[in-house]
Design goal:
The chain is α/β, with parallel strands linked by helices and 323 residues long. It contains eleven helices and twelve strands. The strands form two sheets. It has an eight-stranded parallel β-barrel with strand order 1-4-5-8-9-10-11-12, surrounded by eight helices. α3 links the parallel β4 and β5.
C-alpha cells in the first residue's frame, strides 16, 4: 500500500484546511526612516519602494500603514548634525522625538517603536562612544538610556535597542523606571549578528562605520549557543520582547531562541534580504511577490511571532486580496 500525503493537497480548500502556519498583517512591524527637510519623502535607491520621510510626510505614511491593518511602525532617525558622542540622539527637538509626537498625536492607537542606537548620530558611524580606539561599553550605556528616556518623553510605546552593548537593556529599564516611564516597553535586538545583509540600510540611514566594522559588538554568524545566552541575559535584564536579526539566514536561530524564550519573539527581515528580492524581480529572474510571501511565511514557521519587514505594506495588500 502506498501512503498518499497528496490526498490533502488535492484542492485549494483542502490545502487551506490543513495549513499549519498563518501569516497576518498583525504580525508586521513596518520600518520608517525620518529626516529633516522640505517635501514629503525621498526614495532610497538601494531599497525600491522605501523612502526617507520628512516630518511633513511621515504622519500620512503612518496613517496608510495603519489603514492596511499593520499595527506597528519602528522609526529610524537621520539627524541634521552628527558628532563624536551622538548628542542629537537624545535632543528633545530631535527628528525621532518630533516624529513620535506628531504620529502619536494624529494616530494614538498605532504602536510606535524606535530604534535606540548611536550609529546614525555619530560622525564615525559606530554604535557607541569611542575611547582608546575601542567602543566604550559603559560610557555608551548612559547615552542609550538617555536616548530611550527622550523617546519615552515624546510618547513612544516601545524602545528597541540595536547597539549590542552589554547591559543596555538593564540600563535602559532602570533609567525609564527612574523617570516614571514604567509602561514604556523594551524590544531588545538581543540576537544581532555582524551581517553584510545590512548594506542597503546603511545607505538609507547614513550610518556606515567610517573605519573598521561592527564585529567587536555584533555577533559572529557562526554562533548559535551565544544566541541563547544573549536571549537569557536580556530576559533577566527586563526585556519585554526579543528580536533575532537578520531573519532568513538565521531561521535555525529563530527556532532555537523560540524554544528557550518566554517572551514574544520578533525577527528582522533586513534591508539586504529585501533588496535582493527587489533586484532579482526587476531582472525578471524571480517572481518577487511570491518570493516575498514565501520568505515571510518561513520566518513565521521558524517561530517568530512578529516580523519587522520592509515588505509589510506590500504583503498586507496580498493578504487582503487572498482573503
Ligand atoms: C543600527 C541598526 C542597523 C539596522 C537596524 N538598526 C544597522 C547596523 O547594525 O549596521 C539594520 C536594518 C536593516 O538592514 O534593515 N542602528
Amino acid at each position: 500500500m502506498i501512503i498518499r500525503p497528496r490526498r490533502l493537497r488535492r484542492s485549494p480548500t483542502l490545502r487551506k484546511m490543513v495549513r499549519e502556519t498563518a501569516l497576518s498583517t498583525k504580525d508586521f512591524i513596518y520600518p520608517l526612516f525620518v529626516k529633516h527637510g522640505q517635501g514629503e519623502k525621498e526614495p532610497i535607491p538601494s531599497m525600491p519602494g522605501q523612502y526617507q520621510f520628512t516630518l511633513g510626510g511621515i504622519v500620512q505614511e503612518a496613517k496608510e500603514v495603519w489603514s492596511l491593518g499593520i499595527p506597528s511602525i519602528i522609526l529610524f532617525g537621520i539627524p541634521d548634525k552628527k558628532d563624536a558622542t551622538g548628542t542629537r540622539s537624545y535632543a528633545e527637538d530631535g527628528i525621532v522625538q518630533r516624529a513620535i509626537s506628531a504620529i502619536k498625536e494624529n494616530l494614538p492607537e498605532i504602536i510606535v517603536m524606535t530604534d535606540v542606537c548611536l550609529c546614525e548620530y555619530t560622525d564615525h558611524g559606530h554604535c557607541g562612544i569611542i575611547k582608546n580606539n575601542g567602543i566604550d561599553n559603559d560610557a555608551t550605556l548612559e547615552v542609550l538610556a538617555r536616548q530611550a528616556v527622550s523617546h519615552a518623553r515624546a510618547g513612544v510605546d516601545i524602545v528597541a535597542p540595536s547597539d549590542m552593548m552589554d547591559g543596555r537593556v538593564g540600563a535602559i529599564r532602570s533609567e525609564l523606571d527612574a523617570n516614571q516611564f514604567h509602561d514604556t516597553g523594551i524590544l531588545s535586538y538581543a540576537v544581532k549578528y555582524a551581517s553584510a545583509f545590512y548594506g542597503p540600510f546603511r545607505e538609507a540611514a547614513d550610518c556606515a562605520p567610517q573605519f573598521g566594522d561592527r564585529a567587536g559588538y555584533q555577533m559572529d554568524p557562526a554562533n548559535a549557543l551565544e544566541a541563547i545566552k544573549e536571549t537569557i541575559l536580556d530576559m533577566e535584564e527586563g526585556a519585554d520582547m526579543i528580536m533575532v536579526k537578520p531573519a532568513l539566514p538565521y531561521l535555525d536561530i529563530v527556532r532555537r531562541v523560540r524554544e528557550e524564550c518566554l517572551l514574544p519573539l520578533a525577527a528582522y527581515n533586513v534591508s539586504g534580504e529585501y533588496a535582493m528580492v527587489k533586484a532579482a524581480h526587476e531582472k525578471g529572474w524571480i517572481d518577487g511577490p511570491r518570493v516575498m510571501m514565501e520568505m515571510l511565511i518561513s520566518i513565521k514557521r521558524a517561530g517568530a511571532d512578529l516580523i519587522v519587514t520592509y515588505f509589510a505594506k506590500e504583503a498586507a495588500r496580498v493578504l487582503e486580496q487572498s482573503k
